[in-house]
Design goal:
Layout lengths: L1 E6 L3 H9 L6 E7 L5 H9 L3 E2 L3 H6 L5 E4 L6 H10 L3 E4 L7 H13 L4 E3 L7 H12 L5 E9 L27 H12 L2 E9 L10 E8 L4 E7 L5 E8 L2 E7 L8 H6 L2 E8 L5 E4 L5 H13 L9 H20 L3 E2 L2
Parallel strand pairs: 1-2, 1-4, 2-3, 4-5, 5-6, 7-10
Antiparallel strand pairs: 7-11, 8-9, 8-15, 9-10, 11-12, 12-13, 13-14
Helix pairs in contact: 4-5, 5-10, 6-7, 7-10
């Protein structure tokens, strides 16, 4: 059993704790957050967690095996390095970083400490994403021509200006960090590394925070093209579609709407699935149901215990950050940018 401490107890921090209730491989034994209010104390008591008064206290606690970061991305590199130096495994909620250099430094620190590094790209763990990857690898979709994704939610309309996700330095390009990196990771998982990107991003509706409308074009190193759109001021939605010479496959679902129940945020990201072969009728089915947050944590815990490696390799964690960095650079330059 891996004893973990969650650092940062906002809505998503609580969701992560709730996801592993009853797990046989990982539990949250402690929490640390900037402001301890009565609701935090009640949550800690409900889940049998002790409250530690500082990040340093988490690192000094020998009963804690792993540190789970649900904190703003600007602090991730130093937090990961400090946790690794203290001998802790590290699970970092996305976005890991927006910098390839910072991602490399963070990952290197964990690997040098011979600890496990995990990241919360939990959509990768869904059975429909796994099956899609397998169909691509087996050749069932033929030569892959294009992949595209759209991720939307209305959260920018509701979040207060003080929320860190409403700060441009913590959430550049609006939906890229909270949503888009999931799709970028999916593209990397399916089709390998990204070679170059182009991005346009602007505030169409909400002008007091990060951009709310962002679109990105990709060219994969193996030749396929890609598109990703993120919008933070419209209805919630998710789609991921791969087009090949033998047909296309599309996964549809939702994103994490602010205020939605924990169970919904963990289990309802995928809904209708469609496959249209070049010849033959359209196939439609309902996605399998899985708590993908729990699945991600349990994969991380098994890796910490010496089991199978965490399914997202460190090299892919770093590459996703490099792609995000290039996207941000392109939005600023107005030019096609190479991925570092």
């Amino acid at each position: 059993m891996i004893n973990a401490a969650v650092v940062g107890l906002g809505t998503w921090g609580k969701t992560m704790v709730e996801s592993v209730v009853g797990s046989g491989v990982i539990r949250f034994a402690a929490l640390q957050t900037r402001t301890v209010k009565p609701d935090v104390e009640a949550f800690a008591k409900q889940h049998g967690m002790k409250i530690l008064d500082s990040f340093e206290a988490v690192l000094k606690d020998n009963s804690i095996d792993a540190v789970v970061l649900a904190t703003p991305p600007s602090g991730h590199m130093k937090q990961i390095q400090a946790a690794a130096a203290a001998g802790k495994h590290v699970y970092c909620e996305k976005p890991f970083t927006f910098s390839k250099k910072e991602a490399e430094a963070a990952v290197d620190a964990v690997l040098k400490a011979k600890r496990v590094v995990g990241v919360g790209y939990n959509r990768r763990f869904h059975p429909e994403m796994v099956k899609l990857r397998d169909r691509i690898k087996s050749g069932d979709l033929g030569v892959i021509e294009h992949v595209e994704a759209t991720m939307t939610y209305p959260n920018a309309l509701f979040l207060p200006p003080s929320a860190w996700r409403q700060q441009k330095d913590e959430a550049p390009l609006g939906g890229l960090g909270p949503m888009g990196v999931h799709a970028i990771d999916g593209m990397i998982q399916m089709l390998g590394e990204v070679d170059q990107v182009f991005c346009q991003s602007f505030a169409r509706v909400v002008e007091t925070g990060p951009d709310d409308t962002t679109s990105m074009l990709f060219r994969m190193k193996e030749g396929a093209s890609g598109y990703l759109g993120t919008m933070t001021a419209t209805g919630a939605g998710f789609s991921f579609q791969v087009f090949g010479s033998k047909g296309w496959l599309r996964l549809e679902g939702v994103t994490h709407v602010a205020g939605a129940p924990s169970e919904e945020r963990r289990t309802r990201q995928f809904g209708i699935c469609k496959f249209q072969p070049v010849k033959g009728p359209l196939e439609t089915w309902e996605a399998e149901k899985l708590d993908i947050v729990r699945a991600t944590f349990e994969a991380f815990a098994r890796a910490c215990e010496g089991g199978p490696a965490f399914p997202i390799p460190p090299s892919e964690i770093v590459h996703c950050c490099a792609v995000s960095e290039a996207v941000i650079r392109s939005a600023a330059s107005g030019k096609v940018e190479k991925v570092g």
